[in-house]
Structure formats: C-alpha cells, structure tokens
Specification:
Layout (H helix, E strand, L loop, with lengths): L18 H23 L7 H28 L3 H22 L2 H11 L9 H16 L6 H31 L1 E4 L10 H13 L5 E4 L2 H10 L3 H12 L13 H18 L4 H6 L7 H33 L10 H13 L3 H5 L4 H16 L2 E4 L10 E6 L5 E10 L9 E6 L2 E3 L2 E3 L2 E8 L12 H18 L21 H7 L5 H4 L14 H9 L5 H20 L8 H12 L15 H4 L9 H19 L4 H12 L7 H9 L6 H6 L7
Parallel strand pairs: 5-9
Antiparallel strand pairs: 1-2, 3-4, 4-5, 6-9, 7-8
Helix pairs in contact: 1-2, 1-3, 2-3, 3-6, 4-5, 6-10, 12-20, 16-17, 17-23, 20-21, 24-25
C-alpha cells in the first residue's frame, strides 16, 4: 500500500495517515534529498537558479510538506503511537536540516551564484532568497571547523528533543487535571453552556456532577465567572503549576528549561555571538538586544501608570462592592468581570449569545472578500477529525488562490492555543502555479446540546488574528518557496497582518454583519456594541504591561541572564518588580508553560507581538482614514504587504503601503493611551 505521506500530487491524505507511515516516509524523503544534494553539490560549472536553487528547493519542499503533516497531526490529534512516531523521526529531520545548513559545498555554490554575472538579472525575490540562504548558512554553522560542526549538530538535535518534550509535558499535565464538582452551589456564576459541557464530560466518564478542566473553553469562564473562590483558587493553582516540580515529576519542565538555555548559549558561543538573543535577532528587524529592551521599557513606562490605575480600581471595587479585603491572583478576572458589568452594564457572556459560529465566519469572509476582491467558498478535503472544515479562496474570475483547513474546537488530544501553519506554499511549476494551503487552528468551545458553537468576542478576535496569518500565507503573489507567504518574513514583523485583522472586530460595519442572537435571530443592538467599544480599553494598561513583562523576561533570559548565579524565577521576579501590577503567588510557575519560547519559535522573539503591533496599528490607521472596508486601501495592503511576503524587508513593505516609516501614536491611541502619558 502506498505511503500517503509520500504522495504530493494533491492535498494531504490525512484520513489515510497512520503512525506507522511516519518513519518510513521521513527516511525515504531524507534519503532522496541527500541524494539530490550530493548531485547538486558536486556538479560542474557555474550554479544557476534553474540548475541549482530550483532542484534543491524541490527536494527540501517534499520533506517539509510531509514533516509538516506529521507535526500538525501530532499537535491536533496527539496519541501515544503518533507521539512515538514523531519523536522517532525527529532526529532524522533535525540531522538532515543541520547537516544541510553546514554543507560548505552548498554554501560555496550559493556564494558562486551570488557572484555570477547572471545574479543581478535575477528577480528581486530570487536575490532576496539567495541573501537569506547565505545568512542562514552562516547561522547554521557552515563556517565552523569540523569539531564545531559536530557539536553544533548535536546541540540542535538535543534542542529539538527538549522542545518537543516541553510541549508534550504541558499537554499531558493539562489533560491530567480535572475537578469534579458535585455541589451545584459551588458552580454559581458559571455560564450555562460551560456547565452543560462539563456535565456532559462527567457523564462520559460515568460520573455524577460536573467535570471542569484546564482547556481554555472551560478554564477561562470559570476564572471569570465562578463566584466560589475556593473553586477559582483550585483551578488557578492547577493551571499555573502545570509541568512543574509541584506536579508529577515526569512532566516537570524545570530541567528542560535549564537544558534549553544552556544549549542555546552554547549554540551562540559556537557561532561567535555573545548571547543567544543576538543569534535570534540576526534574522529580525530589530538590530540588537539593547534596542529591544529599550523599546519594551519605553512601552512599560508609558503603560504602567494606566495599569496601576486599573489595578487600583479593581482593589477598590473589590473592597467596597464585593467585601473582598484582598484581591489574589485567582480573583482578578472575577472581580474585573464584576467591575466591567457594573461600569458598562454588559457581560462577555451576554455578548457571546450574538456570535454563533456561522454568523462569525460569514462576517469574517465578508471582510476578506470586500478588501481583497476574492471569494471564500466551502470545499472538501480529507481531514484528521470530523469537526474540521475546508475552504477555498478564489479570485474574481473564479481561479483558485489558496485553500485552508479550519479546526476550531478544543479537544483532549489537541495542543492548546491558536495558530496558523503552512501546509503548502505557493510556487511556480512547469505546469503552472502551485497554490498555497494553510492550517488554521483554534481551541474554542464546541457545539453542545444540539446548538451551534458560540464564540466570545475575544474568541472572535483570536479567529481574525489567525486569519491574518492565513491571509499572509494564502494571498501571496510570490512564486519562490523560500520567500513566499510568511516564509522569509522577519519574525518580529510576522504578527503585522494578524494583529492588523483584530482591529476589524471593533468596527460596526463589520461586527453588525456577523452578529445575531443565537436563539431569537435578533441583530446585535447598536447600544450593546457601543458598550463593547466603550469597554474596549477596559484594563488595557494591565494587559499591555503583561505582554511587556513576558517579552522582557524572554529577552533578558536569552541576553544577560547568568545561569551560574541566578534562577529563572528570580529573573522573572525582577522583571515583575519593574513592570507588573499583579504579583502572582510564589508557587506560580509560568515559565514552565511558556511554550512560545521553550517549545516554539519565539525565543528572544516574544517582543515581536509589541514590535509588530506598532506596525499593525499604524497600518490600520490608513483604513481608519480611508474607510475600514475600502477596497482600494485593501488592494494596496495586499499589493504591498500581504502579496510580497518575505520577498523584501518588512520595513520596505510598510513604507510602500503607508508612504512613511511606522509611528507609535496609533498603537497608543488604540489602547487608550496618549503619546504624552
């Protein structure tokens, strides 16, 4: 029987992929790619794009597409067998990629291409790709001596294994925790739909009562609405101690954090950098760790007075209205929700009734279609779960532009969070164009009781955010794999399109078309929307400094953290001393769940969210000035930002769209902060 992971003729055959396919497929593709590399690296004559870059890109793409499917399945339908297969194949992939990055023969061929008479005549996107490759060979250790290369390769393999284990531990610890509540009085305040799901979860296990879990659709509303403080504390403690020494030893991420930091420092040393932060920034817009730290500290100085006011209001409201003398970490969301209801006369749960899934998706697609002159249409493809939907984007002439999978609901075996990943990039082929395909993944509440899924407004914003990434991937017009879509985009600019899309969730002309009451069909009242807008910046100061806290912690950890005399928690404590207005309890183990930097690609890069928010807020300012659904502005944004992807520096793309360099004023205005505050 054919291995479905080796078939690239059409869309992935997810319904046929078994764990037993993984290792044979990866071994085959690695062997094929190595054979191609051997031919290309030893070829005679001057390297050309068609004779060298193109076949090398093709060989790498086949492995990347197969491994992308395996990685995606491991994240969304994790099972012991699939996890074992993933981890068994991971070393082969890491060894191949590291070995290729260190292959001096390939490096020399790229240098020869860059020095060839034909190089200036290459299209700008192709020259950009070659420039990136030359940089990445240096960062991959190609210029190291033999012993250094061997050590570098070993470190990369160990880092890949540690990061995979870090994610697995969080997933296992999250799945392992639950609270069975048998006394209805302890559930006071929790929304009915959450309780219905919890009742169903307990029933599935043959138990009475309600099963509460740490999955976001359950954990967040419990913390926000549960009146019973002991339940909030129990859930909070379970959440913030996941994968730490305070839980099961086999899932403790503490030694993994130490190992990851140690090995990253060694990688930096081998490459001749003083810190890993410098390695990370070598591919980003920001020039140096001090520049990033100064940027973040400037934001903190601007935001902290607002955050302190937010916190003072919480404490005062808790004391005077709720008879709560002390606001502890597990009280903050609950008190905040009460304060919001008092001040703005609505609750998030009331708003949620106006955002059924079908209306939200229809409203989202309307924005995309209005701005970019495309249509989003339901389509069909094999998937990994019955809940997954599949769509096609076509242009005004009906030609296929791209396709995407949409996996919206939380599941036990699914990694937490929301993300976009590429399944296939756009490229020019001999027979035409290969259109891009993307995975869009969320962890929202699933339908319950025969009713459609309803989303909170925050979940709607998350959906728009991930679609922004998706549009960056799908609306590209670049034909070269290495700089098509989000490939090759500086990481601290990659959040521009995603955070840009969030802004539309606060526009009446958008929201009014994607909101109707789930039971009555009534349109969203303008009065309720106005309250939502009025509350938009409710506690924005606290939310702002929280992101700055994470980003500063990440940057210091990878730049000036002394592992020999300091601890990760002490470092985090010092950052909080400068920035935070909410001090979590001593047993909070946030670093053990910080998968962005220890299990993902944000190491010394978490600042990217705030960095890119300056760009995204300023870019959206053009739509505020010219009309939020102005198709001409949308076409310009697609032409200059989404369409060009990584084919040119992000700053050049921004300037081409906005006509000037980015300014911070729009970001501060959107967050209710003045530039002089």
């Amino acid at each position: 029987m054919e291995n479905p992971l080796l078939n690239f003729s059409a869309l992935p055959r997810f319904d046929e992929v078994l764990p037993s396919h993984v290792v044979p497929a990866i071994d085959t593709l690695v062997a094929e790619a190595r054979a191609t590399i051997e031919v290309l690296a030893t070829a005679d004559g001057e390297p050309t794009w068609d004779g060298f870059v193109e076949p090398l890109e093709s060989a790498n793409e086949r492995l990347a597409r197969a491994w992308g499917q395996v990685s995606h399945l491991n994240a969304v339908v994790n099972s012991p067998a699939l996890r074992e297969a993933y981890n068994a194949a991971l070393p082969a992939v890491t060894q191949f990629l590291t070995g290729q990055a260190q292959d001096l023969r390939l490096f020399d061929r790229y240098k020869a291409l860059a020095a060839s008479p034909g190089y200036p005549g290459l299209a700008p996107a192709r020259r950009r790709l070659v420039e990136n490759e030359l940089r990445d060979f240096r960062l991959g250790g190609a210029e190291l001596p033999a012993a250094g290369k061997a050590r570098f390769k070993q470190l990369q393999e160990e880092l890949a294994a540690l990061s995979s284990r870090f994610q697995e531990n969080i997933l296992d610890a999250t799945r392992d925790f639950s609270v069975i509540v048998s006394d209805p009085a302890h559930l006071s305040g929790i929304p009915d739909d959450v309780l219905e799901t919890a009742r169903h979860a307990a029933s599935k296990e043959g138990r009475e009562g309600w099963k509460l879990t740490l999955h976001m659709p359950c954990y967040l509303p419990v913390m926000q609405y549960a009146d019973y403080p002991a339940l909030r504390e129990q859930m909070y403690r379970g959440f913030v101690t996941r994968a730490s020494e305070l839980g099961k030893p086999e899932w403790d991420n503490s030694p993994l954090i130490a190992g990851i930091l140690e090995k990253r420092a060694q990688v930096a040393g081998l490459l001749g950098y003083a810190t890993f932060a410098q390695v990370s920034l070598a591919t980003k817009m920001a020039q140096s760790p001090p520049e990033v730290i100064a940027f973040l500290e400037d934001l903190a100085a601007r935001a902290k007075p607002f955050a302190q006011t937010d916190m003072a209001e919480i404490v005062e409201f808790a004391r005077t209205e709720l008879n709560l003398a002390e606001v502890r970490a597990w009280d903050v969301a609950w008190v905040s929700e009460r304060l919001r209801q008092k001040r703005y006369a609505f609750s998030d749960n009331e708003v949620k009734r106006y955002f059924p899934e079908d209306a939200v998706l229809s409203g989202l697609f309307r924005v995309i279609e209005s701005l970019y002159g495309v249509r989003v249409m339901p389509s069909r493809a094999a998937s990994w779960h019955p809940d997954v939907k599949f769509y096609a984007i076509v242009d005004a002439n009906g030609a296929l532009v791209g396709q995407f999978y949409l996996d919206l609901y939380a599941r036990d075996a699914k990694r937490g969070g929301a993300w976009m990943a590429d399944a296939r990039n756009r490229r020019r082929l001999a027979a035409g164009f290969q259109t891009p395909v993307a995975f869009l993944t969320c962890n929202f509440s699933a339908p319950v009781g025969g009713r459609p899924a309803f989303f909170t407004h925050n979940e709607v914003i998350t959906l728009f955010h991930e679609f922004g990434h998706g549009l960056h991937q799908l609306l590209t017009r670049v034909d070269e794999l290495g700089v098509s879509g989000i490939a090759g985009v500086e990481w601290d600019a990659v959040e521009l399109p995603s955070q840009f899309m969030e802004n539309f969730c606060w526009e009446w002309d958008v929201v009014s078309h994607m909101a109707r009451h789930g039971e009555t069909g009534e349109a969203l009242p303008r009065g309720l929307f106005d309250k939502m807008v009025a509350a938009k910046n409710f506690q924005s100061g606290m939310q702002f400094v929280r992101q700055v806290e994470f980003a500063l912690f990440d940057m210091h950890l990878h730049h000036d953290f002394d592992r020999s005399s300091d601890t990760v928690l002490a470092m985090l404590g010092r950052v909080r001393d400068r920035v935070a207005v909410v001090r979590p309890p001593e047993w909070n183990r946030f670093p053990n769940q910080f998968s962005h930097i220890f299990g993902g690609g944000y190491a010394a890069g978490y600042y990217s969210y705030k960095w890119a928010e300056v760009l995204s807020a300023d870019a959206f300012g053009a739509f505020e000035e010219e009309g939020v659904l102005n198709p001409a502005t949308g076409a310009r944004f697609r032409d200059e930002v989404l369409g060009v992807g990584g084919s040119r520096p992000a700053l050049e793309s921004f300037v081409a769209f906005r006509g000037r360099k980015p300014r911070i004023e729009a970001l501060l205005r959107h967050n209710g902060m003045t530039a002089t505050a």
